Amino acid sequence: MTSPISEVIVTPVAFADPPLLNAAGVHEPYALRSIIEVRCADGSYGLGESYGNTAHLEGLQAVAAQLPGLDPMRRNDLARVVERHVRTVADDGGSAGSVSATRTFGALISPFEVACLDVTGKALGRPVSDLLGGAVRDRVDFSAYLFYRFAAHPGQDVDEWGAALDPEGIVAQARKMITEYGFGSIKLKAGVLAPDAEADAILALREAFPDLPLRIDPNAVWDVDTAVRIAKRLDGVLEYFEDPVRGIPEMAALSAQIDVPLATNMCVVAWEHVAPAVRDDAVQIVLSDHHYWGGLRACTELARTCETFGLGLSMHSNSHLGISLAAMVHLGAATPHLTYALDTHWPWKHEDLVTGAPVFSGGSAAVPTTPGLGVELDRDALARLHEQYLSSGIRARDDIGYLRRNWAEPELTKLLGEGHMFS
Amino acid sequence: MTSPISEVIVTPVAFADPPLLNAAGVHEPYALRSIIEVRCADGSYGLGESYGNTAHLEGLQAVAAQLPGLDPMRRNDLARVVERHVRTVADDGGSAGSVSATRTFGALISPFEVACLDVTGKALGRPVSDLLGGAVRDRVDFSAYLFYRFAAHPGQDVDEWGAALDPEGIVAQARKMITEYGFGSIKLKAGVLAPDAEADAILALREAFPDLPLRIDPNAVWDVDTAVRIAKRLDGVLEYFEDPVRGIPEMAALSAQIDVPLATNMCVVAWEHVAPAVRDDAVQIVLSDHHYWGGLRACTELARTCETFGLGLSMHSNSHLGISLAAMVHLGAATPHLTYALDTHWPWKHEDLVTGAPVFSGGSAAVPTTPGLGVELDRDALARLHEQYLSSGIRARDDIGYLRRNWAEPELTKLLGEGHMFS
Description:
The structure is a homodimer. By secondary structure, chain A is of the alpha/beta class. Chain A is built from 15 helices and 17 strands. In chain A, strands 7-8-9-10-11-12-13 form a 7-stranded parallel beta sheet, with helices on one face. At the A-B interface, helix 2, helix 9 and helix 11 of A face helix 2, helix 9 and helix 11 of B.
C-alpha cells in the first residue's frame, strides 16, 4: 500500500552535452535538469525529472514544499496544489487563465506526477506502465535524432562523434548512431544551415538509407514559401515534416499546399491549442511530451484526443536523463494510439544519475517490468551532477547567447555555409 | 495486491420498473440488466453492471469466458480480448471497423472494466475514485428525472407515484421526488405528448420551481422546426435542450437557430461522433455514459476531450441498479470537468442486489470511501432477481411493443391527448 508523501526534494543538476546546433543556437557544455524525489512515510521514494532553468526550478520548489501529507495515488489532489500555485503566480503576473498558465501547470505537475506513479508502482509491485493500463508492446521504438554540430565546445577535446556540418557529416553521424542503436527511422534537427543545404542532407540520408523513414525539423524558422519549396524538393521522401513554420495559422496555410503530414511540438503544446489546430487542419501529427502536457496520464488523454480527431501521435524530446527515458518508455508502452517512433536525445548523453534505465537495441527500448519506473537513484551521481550544476554557472538555457559569445562571423559562415540561420 | 482473474460470472436479472413513458413507448414491468462478477485467485471479487438484452448478454458471456488469467489492473489486456471478440463478431456480420463495432466494444468492455476497478480497489484498500485520480468532490449532484407515466402496469396496483400525464401531474411528481431526494435540478423525459403540451409542463415546472434548472429530452423525435418553435417558447427557461432532433446534421441545423445549449446522448455516442459534432457545432454538452463509452477510464478521457473542445459534460442514465449508481458516483467524483448534475433513474427503482449503494440527500449522492465501488453483492437478492428474469419472459427491451399490446387507441389519445407521439 502507498503511504503519504513525507518530503519532496528538488535538486538541480547539470550534465555534459555536446555542441548540438538548432534554430535557437547551440547547446551549451551542460544541459540543466531538475530531479524530483518524492519520499513517503514508509521510506519509499519515487523519481521525476524536469527542466532545470531557475524560474522553473523555483516553481518546482514552491510546489514541492506543499506536497507533504498528500496521497501519491490521488493525482487530482496534486493537480489542485499545482493549480493553486499557478493561479497565485499568474494572478501576480496577470496571466491567470492564459495558455501560459496552462503550460506552466503542465510543466510543474509533470515530474511530481511521474514520481508519484513511480512510488505507487513500487508500493504495488507494479511497473508504471501497469498503472497506465498495461503495456500494449514490450519494446518502444525510437528514431535516430541527428544534429548539425560543431566538433567540440571551445577548449574541449573532440568527442567520438566530431563535427557534422554538411550532408556527408550527417550521413556519417546517422551511420554511427544506427550502428550503435539500431534505429529504424531518422530525424534531422534543421533550422541551422540554409534550407536547401538541409534538404540536401535529407536527400543524402535517403540515398544512404533507402528504407528508413526520414523527418526534418527546422523548429519553425522557415517561412511558408520556403517550406512549400522544400516540401516539393523532398516530395515522397519525408515520413513527416515537423514544425517547418511558426504557429497554427502558418502551419494551416502550409498544410493546405503540401501532401506530407505536418507534425508539431511547437504550435500544439497545450490543451487550448488542440481545437484551433483541428479546426484549421494545421497539423496531422502531435508530438506529445509528458514534461509539459502535465504528466503521463495527461498524455494518455492526449493520445485519446488525437485518435478521436484522426491525428497521429509521436513523442518529443529535450536533452534528458534516465528518469525521463524510463517515463517515456512506460508511457509509450501503455499508449495504444502511438503511431510513430519517438524522439530521444539519449545517444548524446554520457552521464546519468540513475541505474536501470531502459536499454536500447534494434532501435527500441525494452519496457521495464520491475516495480515503478524501474530506475534507482545513484546518490553519488546525483551529488556529482548537482556539483556540476553549481560550478557550471548555467542557470537557464541560452543557446543563442552561447553561440554568439563563442563563434563569431565569419567563422560561423565558414562552418555553416552561406545563408545559414544565424547570419 | 491484486491477483489474476479466476472466473467471471454473468447473471441476467430483472427488476420491477414502473410504466414510464418515453419516445420509444413505455417501460415494461421489468427492466433487464446483466450482473458481472469478476472473481480473482485470492478469493476477492468485483462487480459490474450492464444491459440485459439477449444479444448483449451473449456478448458479455463470450468475453467473460476469455478473461480467466487476466490481470485486473491491466485495462489494455482486457481491451484486447474485447477487441478480438468484437472483430470476430463484426467480421461475421461485415461491420468490422464501423461505428457499430466501436459501440459494441464500448458496451462490452464497460462492466468488466468496472468490475476490475472494483476488485483492484478492494485489493489496494482504495475507493474506485482513487484509481481514477482521486475524488475532487465528496458529493455528486444528480437531477430529478421526471417521466410521463401511467398509473400502473395492466393488472398491477397503482404505486406511490401514480399517473403523470399533464403539467399538474408532472409538477406533483417533481414535488414528491424533490421532497424525498432534494434534487436541485429537473429533467423531463419528453417525446410522449404533443410537443406544446410538454412545453406547457416545463412552464408549469418553472412556475412551481422558479430557481431550479430545467431540462427537456424528447429523444430526437421532433423535427427542427418544432424544436425551434419549442425553444423559443421556452426561451430563458431551459438549462439545456437534450436531443430534440435526430443526428448531427439536424442538431447542427437546430443549434445554428437557437441560443439554448444542446445536449446529447444520442448523436455523440462513440468516439467517431466527436469530431463531426465539434466540426459542425452540433452539440454543446455531451451526456457521457460509462456503459457504452467503454468504462470509467474511457469517460475520464471523454471528459478531457470535452474540456479541450469547450463542450460541457453531464451523465446519461438508463434504468439501473446499485452497482451502476456506485460506478457513476465514483466517476462523477473523480471527473474535474463535470459541468451539470447527472441523470439517474434511481428514484424509480424499489429493489436491488447490492448493499452499500450511495445514499442520496440534498440532491446529491455521497462518494463512497470504502475500498472498491463500496457495494457488496447480496447473493440472495441476486438469485431472486435472476429468477425474476427467468420468469418475466422479457429478453430484450421492447417499449413500443409493450405499449401497443396494452394500450389501444382511443385509450392512448384519451390518456396522452391529441397529437401525442404514438398516434
